[in-house]
Design a protein that fits this description.
alpha+beta; nine-stranded mixed beta sheet; elongated; 1251 residues; transmembrane helix; nine-stranded antiparallel beta sheet
């Protein structure tokens, strides 16, 4: 009995994953999946379901109700949700977007609350409270309060600046305007005032403010063209179309104002491609789908105006729902730093406890028997020890540096500004600078292991250009003159002879122009005529110029190429298409359009020429075209060779062919075509079968080659990142062939790469799962699992996997429950137990399978995931984060990349023509992919090195400063007496030692930016955490401990038996404190000088300036004048001037500093001489190194049989354009007067519904 199979079965188990389709929608429910096929339902389940349906008046998934032009409807009590206690608000969100955190009232309390959630700040607040208790305080309260106020103030100001910027951005969006019906008229209203149920009017090039139901537009049949760049990064236009009934009756303002339609639809969700709802109006219901919905974030194009009804507003819109959960991101160093602070706190407690025990023992042995030490309190030794424990907690609190976190924030803020100001990451064409949108992740840019990149708009420009073609076996497109001689340098073809040329085509083959103009080879003209006639492009005229509206950039590139080369598509109607052929206008009757879909991989058009001949023209992928060619095709092999050449140049190819059709043959076929067109069931399958009958025995004309233009510098960037041991995965919704082609174009893949596909690794993973299952036994507990590679060592491998295979392999396929589980209560306890065990087994299997997949994929040098959904992109990123514990970066440009960007440790948005949704959710943004190498290899590496150096030094200087108290305790009866003046303790971290280390954290660099790019191998130190880890931390602590010993014991020895020049002994406690403090300031400031790799005037000034500042302030604080004003706060009157006038004291200070620093100099010299790092070697020879060499792109090696990576993806539009054209719905007609429409509209509509 197989319990697993009984309890849960996979949907469509027997079907293989389809590489051509994007998997199910992210939010698709099990109920939706079950609706896809009939199943046998148990009787008890049927009874339960019927009872539930009788209780619910509406469909289960259609509970969102919208009433047009009726705001009061949405404020009814049953639409109100309790927000806080008795405060209620409507479940319908308003249209205002809120990304800010504070307002005027909440800023101070909320900000302080957030800051005190940070352990260090809360720790110092507790210390401040302890210092206010007289019995235990050993330091003045201001020693903690002043630094704490500075820290809190700086952080609050930074948070305030960030939040003001968010307020400005929100106001800018919320105060955009559009027209809304109010009081029966269209009135200008701000976006934030729009509510669900409002009827709005939008104009050409307007952003769509909410998710709206399209009611009518200025276009025929109320079509509306939208650009979805904000959603998916694609700039090609998509069309939406209103219901016929709303198109007819809702054109005028008065009819829109009285519109009272009622909508029931699905609740707000993140499914960009799906919508289910029903419009109830005029006692009739009309089904609604995604083709009738305009989504927020889209831009209306090529449509003068449109009207819509707001369904989802603000936070309920699909673009906002699709943005994913905002995650608070922290760096790896942040987590490590916190653990180190906790370690220091434990050390602090242990030290304080030890010293408190020492004090109790000393008090019992010495203090109680020394009458001159009696303090008048009469405490027992144990109680005195208890009080001294808290006293030492206060004294030694500087082990945990209060200024650490604020210093880190200042450094990160400065590094963010350096990124913003970097002119080498500024894109002048779009006036777009790089932008660090967060200030908390800079050093993590120097630790990236994996980059996950979108393709369209990120690696590519999403601009297609016609580069080459093969006609009748002859390749055209090289640089050659009209005499067919090749030239390295030749002028661009002049298209001035063609009145319809747009001048945008850069073409250099003059011989092709000669062939077209001479007409010697009829196949050449036939080739470009086919491009001009076989497509679904729309055309209109703007200022007398032709303007093409293509559903895919590929198709637009082909039609534009034909236009420039003399065959211009001019106009189309429902049944005709007009072409200018070398200046002569000819109109052809369109008899049928055989539309494209992902299975057919081709489209055809059947036309009747003016002479009465019938001809079929077809274009499509070579794999499907070659199967349908006539046996007698003399140029078949030559075209195949040309396709191989085009593929080796990573160009996207299509084959073109035609066929003459006899009148009788067409009439017979047309009957079948018309019957299939009106089939009530399986219409698409019936049409495809009819298409197959006519698309055979084709005559090959040739092939086109289109370049999907990469962004500048993409191959160079990928090459350098690979040398930095960063792996790049491409996650895209495009087809497998297209993604593979781009992989070769950007040199992620090479001719030497062995490519593995989904079906290949599925077998490998199944074998591995079987081996792991067989190993599970008694001995598995004693033998630890040994990781085994999936592939033999050596060789360059890449993985290309589709979304469908990804779901299959990761066991993420949607499942449907066995119907027996629909019962609400299990029948027995045994059944419940078995079900729980089965679920656990399935989860364990899934987790193991996912881990195996990640291990296998990480063995590959490159991974390309295609036809994946936004949720799958985020899932892949999360799997690598979870199982590899690696630092990840995701880069994209559209709303479909937002989830991935938010999931990765660092998200980068490409800002440009593709939209700003990804940018708004990213941590960093810039305009071109190539800037990524500078962001990581220069700014990221520098930030990591600076932060590590800063932290190591910061811990060192605080241990050196604080542990002097520890050594002093052995000589003062463990009495929690401080070794320094109180004001020195207060100002040490704030003034005396802060500026030099801050400047190192901001400005230091081991090598220049050019050398950082030239030697990407320098990047690996961050990936391996070599510069800051627990080992480095304890070395810094040990260094600080030794320094504190030297700082205490050398002056202590010097003061034991000392007489000054005047016969007086300067060996009092206050002079001793001044001596130690002076030696400490000189030592720690010179130490940061030794740690500085990049010297500037500012660094030198800060070091010597800090020392000078210390002496200046000390002499002021020790003056008699300030003592007279505040006698209790300033008690070291005259100490500095008295002590520092003794040469002996200066010699002591110099000796102490020298003993602290000289061993460091010796160790540094030996390490750089004997064990130099890569950066040390480059620094040593940097004068000899020339300017960065130009990266030489590898030459592509021609190889036969490369056609397997040919892309024929010239049809990225959805199915249905052919039907749109041939039905005439997209063709402009002279509109009848509205009165006439209304007069007989009802009867006409009834006929439409009945048909």
């Amino acid at each position: 009995m197989n319990t697993e199979r009984d309890s849960e079965t996979t949907f469509e188990e027997d079907s293989q994953p389809n590489d051509e389709v994007v998997p199910y929608s992210d939010d698709e429910t099990e109920d939706e999946l079950e609706d896809q096929g009939p199943t046998v339902e148990p009787e008890q389940n049927r009874v339960n379901r019927e009872a539930e349906e009788n209780r619910e008046p509406f469909r289960k998934d259609c509970t969102w109700q919208v009433k047009a032009n009726d705001r009061s409807f949405h404020e009814q009590p049953h639409f109100m949700n309790t927000k806080f206690f008795c405060i209620k608000e409507s479940k319908y969100a308003n249209n205002a977007i809120k990304t800010y955190k504070y307002n005027v009232i909440t800023f101070l309390p909320m900000n302080l609350f957030e800051q005190f959630k940070r352990a260090a700040n809360f720790y110092f607040l507790i210390l401040l409270i302890l210092q206010s208790i007289p019995q235990i305080t050993t330091l003045a309260w201001y020693t903690t309060l002043v630094p704490l106020l500075i820290v809190l103030g700086i952080t609050a100001i930074k948070d305030l600046v960030d939040d003001v910027a968010r307020h400005k951005m929100d106001n800018k969006i919320n105060n955009r305007t559009c027209e809304v019906i109010k009081d029966g008229r269209f009135k200008i209203a701000k976006w934030k005032e729009i509510q669900v149920g409002d009827v709005i009017r939008l104009k050409k090039n307007d952003f769509i403010p909410a998710d709206i139901l399209l009611l009518s537009s200025s276009e025929p049949n109320s079509l509306c063209y939208v650009e979805t760049a904000e959603l998916d990064g694609e700039t090609n236009l998509k069309f939406k179309m209103a219901l016929e009934i709303t198109h007819q009756y809702l054109q005028r303002e008065n009819s829109l104002a009285t519109f009272d339609g009622f909508i029931e639809c699905e609740e707000p969700n993140n499914r960009l491609d799906k919508f289910i709802g029903t419009l109830f109006w005029r006692n009739t219901s009309f089904p609604l789908d995604a083709d009738k919905i305009l989504l927020r974030g889209c831009v209306m194009r090529n449509t003068d105006f449109c009207h819509g009804l707001v369904i989802f507003a603000g936070a309920d819109t699909k673009i906002m729902k699709n943005s994913g959960k905002t995650r608070f991101k922290r760096t790896k160093i942040d987590y490590l730093m916190n653990y180190m602070v906790y370690t220091i706190i434990i050390v602090l407690i242990l030290l304080s406890a030890g010293l408190a025990i020492g004090h109790a023992y000393w008090e019992a042995q010495v203090g109680n028997y020394s009458w001159y030490l009696y303090d008048g309190e009469g405490y027992t030794p144990s109680y005195s020890g208890f009080l001294n424990f808290w006293g030492y907690i206060i004294i030694l609190n500087t082990l945990v540096p209060i200024s650490l976190y604020v210093s880190v924030e200042v450094i990160r803020l400065g590094q963010s500004y350096f990124i913003n100001w970097d002119l080498q990451m500024y894109y002048s064409e779009k006036d777009t600078p790089a932008k660090a949108r967060t200030t908390t992740l800079n050093e993590q840019l120097g630790q990236i292991h994996y980059i996950f990149s979108d393709k369209t708009g990120t690696l590519t420009q999403n601009i297609m250009t016609f580069k080459k073609c093969c006609i009748n076996g002859q390749i055209y497109g090289d640089h050659r003159d009209a005499s067919q001689h090749n030239h390295g340098k030749i002028e661009q073809v002049d298209f001035s002879w063609n009145t319809f040329a747009d001048g945008k085509l850069a073409f250099y083959d003059h011989y092709l122009i000669e062939q077209i103009q001479s007409g010697k080879e009829p196949e050449v003209r036939q080739f470009f005529f086919l491009l001009a006639v076989c497509h679904t492009v729309m055309v209109d005229r703007i200022d007398g110029q032709l303007n093409y509206q293509a559903a895919s950039p590929d198709e637009g590139a082909l039609v534009s190429a034909a236009r420039n080369l003399g065959f211009a598509f001019l106009a189309r109607t429902q049944n005709t298409i007009t072409i200018s052929e070398m200046g002569t206008e000819r109109t052809y009757n369109v008899l049928a359009i055989l539309d494209f879909n992902s299975d057919r991989k081709r489209m055809s058009i059947i036309v009747r020429t003016p002479e009465g001949n019938i001809r079929l023209y077809c274009k499509g992928a070579d794999t499907v075209i070659y199967e349908r060619l006539h046996q007698m095709n003399p140029t078949k092999q030559e075209t195949q060779d040309a396709l191989d050449i085009f593929a080796s140049e990573t160009l996207r190819t299509l084959c073109l062919c035609y066929k003459e059709i006899q009148e009788r043959e067409f009439e017979e076929w047309n009957k079948k075509f018309m019957a299939a067109s009106v089939a009530s069931t399986n219409r698409d399958e019936a049409l495809d079968k009819v298409y197959e009958e006519i698309e055979k025995d084709l005559i090959l004309l040739g092939a086109t080659a289109i370049e999907d233009k990469l962004q500048d510098g993409v191959p160079e960037t990928i090459s350098k990142l690979a040398k930095a041991d960063i792996k790049i995965w491409v996650l895209t919704g495009d087809k497998k062939e297209t993604a593979e082609n781009i992989g070769f174009a950007c040199e992620l893949l090479t001719e030497d790469t062995t490519i593995c596909y989904g079906e290949d690794i599925n077998a490998l993973l199944q074998t591995r799962m079987e081996d792991q299952r067989n190993r599970v036994g008694v001995y598995a507990k004693f033998v630890p699992p040994v990781p085994e590679p999936f592939f033999p060592p050596g060789g360059n491998r890449a993985l290309i996997i589709t979304g469908s295979w990804l779901n299959e392999i990761l066991l993420e396929k949607k499942t449907k429950r066995s119907k027996i589980l629909k019962l609400k209560f299990p029948r027995t306890e045994e059944e419940r137990r078995m079900r729980t065990q089965s679920k656990r087994r399935l989860e364990a299997k899934k987790e193991q399978q996912q881990k195996n997949f990640v291990d296998l994929a990480c063995e590959c040098s490159a991974v390309i995931c295609c036809r994946v959904t936004p949720k799958q992109k985020a899932m892949v990123v999360d799997l690598v984060k979870r199982y590899k514990k690696a630092i990840t970066l995701a880069i994209g440009d559209g709303a479909n990349d937002v989830n991935m960007i938010k999931t990765a440790h660092i998200g980068v948005g490409i800002s440009g023509q593709e939209g700003m949704q990804a940018v708004m959710s990213s941590d960093y943004s810039f305009a071109q992919f190539r800037y990524l190498q500078r962001l990581l290899l220069v700014h990221g590496r520098w930030s990591y090195i600076r932060m590590c150096k800063f932290l190591r030094y910061f811990f060192y200087k605080n241990f050196a400063f604080t542990l002097v108290h520890f050594w002093y305790s052995f000589f003062n009866g463990y009495s929690a007496q401080t070794a320094y003046e109180d004001w020195f303790i207060t100002l040490y971290n704030v003034l005396y030692s802060s500026l030099p280390v801050l400047l190192v954290g901001l400005l230091d660099q081991d090598v220049s930016d050019k050398l950082s790019l030239r030697f990407p191998g320098l990047y690996v130190v961050g990936q391996r955490d070599l510069l800051f880890n627990y080992k480095r931390f304890f070395v810094s602590l040990l260094h600080g401990v030794l320094t504190s010993m030297i700082l205490f014991f050398i002056p202590f020895g010097a003061y034991l038996q000392t007489v000054g020049q005047d016969g007086e002994a300067p060996s009092d406690y206050q002079s001793f404190a001044v001596t130690i403090a002076s030696a400490l300031i000189i030592t720690v400031n010179f130490q940061i000088g030794l740690d500085t790799s990049y010297w500037t005037f500012v660094n030198a000034f800060s070091i010597f300036g800090s020392i000078a500042l210390y002496f200046g302030i000390m002499f002021d604080l020790h003056s008699a004048g300030i003592h007279v004003l505040f006698p209790s706060a300033f008690q070291f009157t005259g100490t500095a001037s008295n002590a520092l006038r003794q040469p002996y004291i200066w010699l002591t200070i110099i000796l102490t500093a020298a003993v602290c620093l000289l061993p460091v100099v010796a160790v540094r010299f030996l390490s750089m001489t004997i064990w130099p790092s890569e950066s040390d070697k480059i620094q040593k020879h940097r004068k000899r190194l020339k300017a960065e060499e130009q990266w030489q792109r590898r030459q592509s090696v021609f190889r036969r049989g490369a056609s397997s990576r040919r892309s024929a993806y010239a049809f990225s539009h959805q199915r249905g354009y052919a039907d749109l054209i041939s039905s005439g719905r997209s063709i402009r007609k002279k509109r009848s007067p509205l009165d006439a429409i209304i007069a007989d509209g009802t009867a006409e509509y009834r006929r439409t519904v009945e048909s």
